[in-house]
């Protein structure tokens, strides 16, 4: 069964949410790519932790969460 595509406003909202979810997922993957090697190096005792840019990535996720909440709140 095909979804109802007649409500253009709702479809635009779904599209915006999809873009925001994808951006958040990609940013979270970049965080994972930085954090997992650091956590894996705990066992080897390595001091080579590269935390540059980690705070910025977390801030991006916070901004994306706010944008998602804004789009969701406009639904009502």
Compute the separation of the termini in Å.
25 Å
Weakly predicted, low-confidence segments: none
Oligomer: single chain
Number of discrete helical segments: 2
For the biggest sheet, the summary is:
none
- What structural class results from the helix and strand content? mainly alpha
Percent in strands: under 5%
Average pLDDT metric? 88
- The string of secondary-structure elements, in order, is HH
Please estimate the helix content.
55-70%
Q: How many whole angstroms does the radius of gyration measure?
A: 18 Å
What is the general shape?
elongated
Number of strands: 0
Protein described:
- By secondary structure, this protein is an all-alpha fold.
- Helix content is 70%, strand content 0%.
- It has helices at 8-40, 54-73.
- The protein is elongated and about 60 Å long.
- The two termini are 25 Å apart.
Detail the topology: elements first, then pairings.
Blueprint: H1 8-40, H2 54-73
Helix pairs in contact: 1-2
What's this model, at a glance?
The protein is built from 2 helices and no strands. With 76 residues, it is mainly α.
Q: What attributes does this structure have?
A:
76 residues; 2 helices; 70% helix
């Amino acid at each position: 069964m095909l979804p109802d595509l007649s409500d253009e406003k709702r479809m635009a909202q779904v599209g915006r949410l999809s873009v925001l979810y994808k951006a958040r997922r990609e940013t979270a993957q970049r965080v994972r790519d930085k954090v997992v090697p650091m956590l894996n190096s705990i066992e080897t005792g390595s001091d080579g932790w590269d935390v540059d840019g980690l705070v910025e990535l977390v801030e991006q996720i916070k901004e994306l969460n706010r944008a998602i909440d804004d789009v969701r709140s406009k639904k009502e």
